Structures are given as C-alpha cells and as structure tokens.
C-alpha cells in the first residue's frame, strides 16, 4: 500500500503537512460507510508519521548502523550448504519441538525449553535443514519465553543475539509484549532502550488502537494505549507519544459513559502532560500542538460521522482546557467554529452566536489565512442566524462585514484557503442580494449582484461558479419583478450561454430555471415561438435528471409550453405537450395507467401533472377530440380525486366539469350525470369559492342532461342548485336555467 498516495501528498518529513492531509481525507472516508478505506487511511497516516518521526530521531541521534536482515544473514551463512535428505536427528528434534509447542503449560515453562535445547547435543547439520521450519513453528505459538528464542537462535543462528526483535513484524512484536510473564521482559527492555525500535512498537500500538476505535472495539483500543503508557511512561524520549496515547485513551473512555473512569483517565492524562512538560505554558509548544491537532482531527472525524453534537461540544471544551489551544490561533478558531456548528445542529442559536462572537472577538482582524477562513464563515453564519430569527438588519450587518472584510483582498487564482474564503464571500453577496429584494431594495440588490458577477464571474472554482449562477438567475428575477423584461431576458441568456454544459447539479438547476424563465420573458414580449423553443430546450436538456427540483422545473416548462400553443390555437401541439408531461412523470409510454409517485420534495410535480390533465381536457374540446378528453378526464379522477392538496382538488373538479361536457358532446347523458353526481359527492361540502363555482357549472350541465333524458323534476332541482351557487353562475346561466325549466314543465302538460 502506497500510503503517500492514500494521503494525497508527496513523501515528506513535515508532520504538520501529514496531519493536514489526514484531516482532509477524513472528510471523504467515513468509518461506518467505508470502514476498509478508513482503516487503510489510518494505517497510511501512522506509517507516514512514523517515517517522519524516525527522520527526526535520526537527525537527533545519528544514522543507526545498517543491519542485514536475518534472511540475508541466513542466505549468506548457508549459501554453500548442499541439499540433503532430512537426518534422523532432525526428525527427532522436530518431533520433540512439535510436542512441546502443542502443550500450553509446557511451552510457557522456560525449563522445558532449556531441557529441549540444552539436554542433547544437536548436530550442526540441523541448522540449514530446519532453519525456516522452526522459526515458522515458533511464530505460530506467540508469545514464548525468552529462553525459547535465545536457545533456538543459538542453535540456528537466525540473527545476532541482541537483535532478536528484528525477527518479528509489528503485529508479532505486539503479541510478544502482551504477556510479560512469557519472557516479555527482555523485549520490554529492548523497546525502552532502543529509540528506533521503540518508535516502531509505539506507532504499531497507536495504529492498532485507532483501528480498534474505528471498529468500535473500545476496550481493546484502551488496552493498546495502556500498553504504551506502561512501556514508555518513564522514558523521556517517548513523552510526546505517551501523551498521544493517554489523550486517545481518554477519548475512548468517554465513549463508555462511565463518569468515574472518565475522571480517572482525565487526571492521568493531566499527570502525564505535567510529567512530560506538555502542560499549557511549557516550552514544548510544538509537541502539545501536535497532540491537540490529533484531538481536533478526531473531533472533525466525529462531526463528519454525524456523532452527537453535544458530545462533540464536550470534546471541544476538553481540548481547550487540556491543551490551551489559544496558543495556536488555527486550532482555537477551528474549535470555536465547530462548537458553533454543533450548537446549530442542536437548534441553540444563542450559544451558536456566543461561540462565533468569541471567535470574532479574538481573530476578526487576523491576517493568518488558516484563521481568516473561520472568521469569514463565522460572520456568514451570524448573518444566517439573523435571517432565521427575522433580524434583517442584523443579517445585513454581518453579510456586509464579510464582504467589506475580505472582498478587497481576494484575487483570482489564489490557493485553496483563499478560494474557500472567496466561496464564503460570494455566498454572503448572494444572500444579501436576496435579502435586499425581500425588503424591496431592488436597486441595491441589482448593484450587489452585478458586483458579484463582475468579481467572481470568471472564477474556475466549482462552488463559486454555482453561487454566481444562482446570483445571475436571481438578478433576472429582480428585473422581471421590476417589469424590465429585456434586462431579465439578457440575464437569463447570460446564464444559459455561460453554464449550459456544466455537470454540477446546482448549476444545472439554475440553467433549467434560466431557460424556463426565458420562456416567460419571451411570452411577455409576444415572442411565443422563442418561448416554445426555450421550454422545449428545458425538457430535452434535463428530462433525464434524477434531481427532484430540476424535474419540477421541467414539469413547469412543459406545462407552460402547452399554454403557449394554446395562445397560438395549435391544439394538437398543446395536447402533445401535455402528454409529454404526463407520460414523463408517470414513467409509461402512451396513455399512462398508473399515477406518478415522486418523493415528498417533488410533490409540486403532482400539481403540474394534474394541471396538464385539466388543460388537455380543454384542448381536446377545442380539437374536437371528445374521446381523448374522456380518457384523460377519467384518469385524472382515478389519480387525484382523493388528494388533500387544495390546488389539485380545484383542478380535479374543473376537469370533471369538462369531462361531463365531453360526454354531453357524444350524447352520453347517463355517463355525464354519473360524473356530476361523483363531483357533488366529493366536493359538495367544500367551502372553497373556486370549487363552489365549478360545482355550479357542473349542476348546470347536470340539469342539461336531465332535461335531455326527460327527467324534468331532476333538471329543475339541478338548475335550482346552479342558480344558488357561486357568483360565476351568472345571470345568463340563471335565466337560461329557468327558461329550460319552464319549457320542461310545459312539455309535461
């Protein structure tokens, strides 16, 4: 595994750069969603840190003498040994060794190993023949007494006697250290006395502890950290790593919810920090900052994993208390900012404000880029809080402070931190412009929008481009609201020309809105063919999108396109546009047979489908296609008559009135009467004026049907209900109703 590639950086000895890269990657690899990649990332982080720290140790202690590996020593020693069949002595030795290893009680007894290895004079010829086999067998039995390793090494000459630890990889070393009564004392002494070996073992234990943490095996993680403290707690060269282990141990203990144990872990960490001189105010500021950065990385990882915000706030407070993060502005700013974010998640605006106020009090005038980003975000979030609480003037103040503080210093092509600040600034400009619109300050909104477009319109940063596209669309809406249709059209065309090919979802949504709004502007200017072309482009460009908001815009565009055809009295094309909308969101070809089922956020699409069905029923009447009108009318009833949406209910009853008209056109009086009765049963008790007006029209049609079939008393009752209906049952309708009633009674006489 190339750990530098995983971290996304070139090989380096800069510990701070490694930690920053690790913190960035934590935002990508979630421990629950991608545990394998998360574990690989942690291992890469540990390996990179180990290499960097080893380089620091080499610089301090000098380059260690290069040792050949035990494999190289073996190959050099036995290179000339000819292959030969196994001797009887070799077979006997392996039989005794296998028997010893199979008995747990015997293999833990140093005397048993001495009896095996010293009790007989084993011939030298055993060495080349059994060299690898014996080592492999012993490694399978870890841990083993010191006498097992020293005796076998003397017989088989694996490696120099004082370098036995080089026989083992990191996992094997940890296994050797887990049970001191099995001869771990010799290895414990070695790792304490050999700095490079100690770094290797300590990093292996830290890495394993954090892997256990990621796997939620908290007790095993704590055991790894306890082992580090036990091995290296009194070794001056390892005081920084011991503090790391104790800090990680406290993080694990906090997860257990045991207040007493947590208090003990906190006190132990403080004692270790004092002993290691890493307490606040000491000279070991860099080491303390490194531990604090580790802690902060853990906090950010928890936030990305959507852990309990209250727990994260507690960790932030603990970090400030234990490590005095005020000594490092970047850490303090991040801690305060993340506290504010967590208070937002808890819905506590006042404490969120307090965290941001503290950050701004300390750092608003700073010139340090790492801190400036959090200043900008704190100001921006304060503005959002003001908007949320209805404090428009407060929101305007904070957005203006963001813009005034940072806009003048932002230039195109800056590094990632400056680009992040630019993203916050352009977001503030967009929000402030929208706020001006809501307050009726249109000229200020337009001026601010133009300033944002001029300053950031050429940015290559994706998120900035997305915000600029939103500002440009809103600028078009402002012009449209001021009845400056030509300027609005120009703004929408600018969005389309600049962003049409973008794949970014927010930008695609804004392009869809620009095309749809362009159609409205063209219609306002009596350029209906251009309006139809713009609506058609929305559908062709975006109808395969998976985004609910974009699909809603598509439904609006198709519905509007049908009304443009209506204005041109092109009924067949109007019907085709309605069918395209209905079939698109029903997911079927031809006349759909099942209602659409969008997500909750796409509920408005249902309204547009219902509207398309209602309009199609009208267009079928104009096109003299009553059969098609009947089909779509019955489908609308099937899909929507049980809807609770008041707007959809208005469309349904209007569609039912038109459906009755289609039946009447075909002289299907009974079917028309049935539709009218169904409408009365579903909508007769409605208090909505528009629905009552449609009911009056339906009763009038019902009276016509009764009259045609000779049911004059029923016709009289229907006409009476129509005459008492809504004002839309005009005087003409009333007079006509009574004329028909009188004619009906005369025919009876």
TrEMBL record:
Domain J: 2-65
Taxonomic superkingdom: Bacteria
Entries under CDD domains matching the protein: DnaJ (cd06257)
Keywords tagged on the record: DNA replication, Repeat, Stress response, TPR repeat
SUPFAM superfamilies xref list: Chaperone J-domain (SSF46565), TPR-like (SSF48452)
Descriptive protein name: Heat shock protein DnaJ domain protein
Cited Pfam families: TPR_12, TPR_6, TPR_8
Ranges in coiled-coil conformation: none
Organism (species): Pelosinus fermentans JBW45
Annotated GO biological process: DNA replication
Lineage: Bacteria, Bacillati, Bacillota, Negativicutes, Selenomonadales
